[in-house]
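Board notes (copied after class):
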Amino acid sequence: MEDKEDTLQEGFAPEETVKEVDLNTLFPGRGYDLNRLFPDGETRKLLRDVKRNRRDLERFVKNLQMEEES
């Protein structure tokens, strides 16, 4: 399942969509405004990519564990 940000960015140049990354939506439950803490669009994009990579790695490890159990 793709993230909302993934579907928003298809077909657009990265420069057009960098500012659209909402860190408060991406990392809910924080007691402070992440968008204000990281106002730079490139940093927001990096954090989004880090979260996506982490999710992909966790999925990969889970699949490896399932293969070992079989």
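Comment from the instructor: The helical segments are 4-9, 14-17, 23-26, 34-37, 41-69. The chain has five helices and no strands.
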